[in-house]
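Repro case for the chain-ordering regression, as requested:
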Amino acid sequence: MSETIVAKIRDLKKYFGATKALDGVDLDIYANEVHAIVGSNGAGKSTLMKTLAGEYIPDEGHLYYLDEDITGLPPLEIQRKGIQVVHQVLNIVESMSILENILVAFPPTKNGLLNWKDGREKVQEILDFIDIRFDLSKPTGLLSISEQQFVILARALINKPKVLVLDEPTSRIGLEETKKIFNVIRKLKEHGTTVIYISHRMEEIYQICDKISVFRDGLRIDTRLTKDLPKDELVTMMLGKKLDVFFPKSVIEASDEVLRVIDLKYKDRLDGISFTVKHGEIVSIVGGVGAGKTEIINLVYGILKPDSGEIWVDGKFLPLSHTPSKAIKHSIALIPEDRVLQGMIENYSVKNNLSALSMEKISKRSLIRNRWETNLAQSLNDKLSVVPNNIEYMINALSGGNQQKVVIGKWMAEKYMLYLLDEVTAGVDIGAKSEIYMILGQLAKEGAGVVLATGDIEEAIGISDRIIILYKGKIVKEVEPLKVTKDEILAYIMGGEKVAKPVY
Amino acid sequence: MPNQFIKFIRLYGMPIGLLVLLLLVQGIFHKVPLFSLLNIKHILLETVSIALTALGLSYIMISGEGDLSFAGMFSLLTVVFALVSNQLNSFTISFLSICATILVVNLFIVLLVTKLKFSSFIVSIAIMFMANGVEKALHQQTTLIQDPNILSFAKIEFGLPLVVLIAAIVYIFSFFLINKTKFGFSLRIVGENKNAAIEAGINTNQMKVIAYIIAGLLIALAASIESTRVGAIYEQGKYYMLPVFAACFLGSSMFVPGRVNVFGTLIGALFLGVIEKFMNMISVESYLVSIAQGAILIIAVGLVAYRHREKIEQIKL
Amino acid sequence: MIKQGSSSSKKFKIWFPSTQTGMFLALVLTVFIIFTFIIPNFNYIRIGNLNNILTDSVIPAIFAFGMGMILVVRGFDLSLGHIASMVALIIAYLMSGGIKFDPFTAILVGLTTAAAIGLLNGLLVSRMGISSFIVTLGMQFLIIGIRQIVTHGQSVYISNSLFKSLAKTQFGISNLVIILIIIAVLCYFLMELSTFGRKAHFIGENIEASRFMGIDVKQYTMFAFTLGAVLAAIGGALFAARAGGVQINSVDSKLLDAITIAVFSGVIFGRFKTMGIILVSILISMISTGMSMLGVKTEWIEFMKGFILLSSIFLAKFMNMNTELLKLQVFQKIKRSDKQWT
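-- result from build under test --
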């Protein structure tokens, strides 16, 4: 870390209608540092980075880069100056090759015509730097999400930025890949680049970042050296209040089986998965991206059709061709991975979203009775303590964590036997996370089986009775959280060999 | 090896399949020589304006928008062409005036789409209906082109009819423009992933404006050619829609699967033109032709879509 | 944009007193007043004329109901006009052919045919995954061809007076209006109050999420197309009743009206609002009638309808509505999401 200030943010304000996304942010960014930006959803992290990148124009305040005022410059200019942002959303052009995607902003030309050959060397250099191998002519749409993330990273690095912003870079990639990203970050730091690291993942932040800036409600609360900031204090700063209970611990006498999966096979993703879940049990399925967590969940629910295998729910056999609606009839619930695309109906009210599964309950002879709907929705809303407490609001207006509560909420209208949750706390702030864990604990207490697919090992250890570790479509181990360390789980996720030394 | 084979089939399967189909048809109706030189020239000549209009539409679709207005605009342009040419007896001036007409309209459309974020589809439908109305109003008057010089334009030949050569040049030019220049690269990105384009610093609005301008010029060219060839206004604007769209969609099933592309559109236009002309030659009634075209469109796109269907079913993991 | 319009706790919401309706009614009133004074002798507000306007708005409104249903599930149907004309021809033929069918059977056959075509459209769209635009475009041409084969281009005259009485005027009001009211009530219950309607709207807004909620998207899509076709067929039958005969392509242009009304209503009032569709249809009828009374030629009236479609979007922008309300999945980009593509 050095004392040279590379970029300055002064009194930055950005409003979206009545929402104050940024309410006067001051921040100094030094050279050669890895600087974490943490905060709950809605704290302003992504807005800040989009403003820095030039995609948003601030309503007030200034941005400085190397003493130059860059406020209001267009994205391409800012990129040229040396600030690169890798966003959460992977904006790749699917039909174009990896080479074209990496050079998308600066396609190489010769005599007015495109000349991709010229770009290959430069791109290969960057790929070696990142330590990843690609067939450059492959269409990017065919890559896994993890691989696509690296394409975007390469795109940012090709311009040799002085400031690189990574927005949730590891949320969708596996552990080997995370290792690579961390290596890249270390190398960049040596070369004099500053890395800004936005993440929800505490272990990573404490591993790789020198400084932590905490944001809350559109303001920077404080910046501290990582070594001087204990984790619980960090959480307190993020929330503005102390958080006692994080994971509910309740030990249940498990009983009959609620789910039995036998030798499930699915294309090249799952290679013979077998496991059971008992009533009252919370079982986590952990693994890297591509390991098969989402596939298992979607297969049990019926969104995907397995190639072979058997699924038994509460002693009843589910035919392989079953559909989500049949799953629901069999008392299976699913909270999908992508909240916005799969979990909720945008442009509709919280009320309509909450009642979405309870149509029969709120209607008489197929006609919806408004009062019944309102009552049902309000009770669910209260049960989940959704903020703000107004079910007439459009669901778009809520923060991520609260949207997720609504997504879960509609399933709370009935008691299901089996709950399947896919990354249920991804992108959710700590306060809401905690509440969700309480709900899951309660469901298990009441006798349901809960299957939680997650990439968050801490979460898995904290909440489950049993952890199933997945690697490349196979179950490599089943463990009990009390009898295993985080590192061991990580090791299994990465390939099934026990490794004693630190993973990163 | 099998992987390579599959790749080949999926990229080139459709055009090859169409060719095979044609050969089959020729085999069945061998009394009428489909592939004789004279007939090919004739077919090409009649397909030119559809091919050019489809190319224009392709530009718009590559940029990520849709357009139905050409169905109405095309007839309108032929009317304007006839009127101007009867007054001023000059191909050039007539051509320029219809260029001006459609450019005004297209710029209006693209302005609404880019600045006001209207749906290009709906706007173009409105324009189509408005154009229909204007066209009907205008062609109460004379509808035949009277100047023999202009009428002979379609007959000029240098081996192949001049208009065919013009169309070929335009297509080759478009191929290079779209696939080998920075402009084309940027345009394709705008159409495929607007956010990626913004991140890459591309001025999406500018790209769309240019696409609409080029499209307008192409349609004007097509209308001029058709006017001189037919010698009168082209009334069948409604029936024009199908082959043009079909050409673009058929084209999107080949060479660059899933995306509208230049040569795909060309092959699509040619194929549909050939089918239609051939059926005329063997005296198939016009309504059967329209049935055939409708069926071909649905089947061709259906095949491509069906292959993707299973994939669309899968949630992106 | 946060609040979704005030919902009253009244039992039956025919329409809600929101800004959109208010402004629209103001527009209607303005148009009405303009025409009343522009047209000589106050002919515009004569009872007979007002009745005409109302009656003229019936058939386009029914078409718009059909189109609207399909729009709700994010589909688009270009073949509705042709379906209507084909059904009208079938009905006319059946009643005047060798075996003189009675009107009820003829209508039944006609509606069944429409349902079959609609079902086919729906099947192709939902099971084959072809974009509805292409399917219905192709279907349009198929119908043109079939129609030609069946009728050899000749018009059919209807002599059956019972059938024609569908359009008769009784006690000062045309039967058509009564039929419209019946259909409107049915549509209202189906699309706005029922669970079917709610789920259909969900599909239109987010197909993925609807699937995850266990909604059978395929079934709903097929339903929508089938119902749309049947409604269009009803429109066609009524048209034939009113006109007393069917020409081979007389109903085709109704598509324009249907689109204009459905889109206009959708943009101003929301995806499917029965009252909205009826009001818009009346507005357009008012304008058409007024213009023809002023001696404007039909072409310009057609032009005006296109202009109205355009202005509806402007109006929506001006009133700051969410113009994405009518996300139409017309040009379905073929997504390549499978690794086994190459």
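Ordering looks correct now. Chain C has a mean pLDDT of 79.
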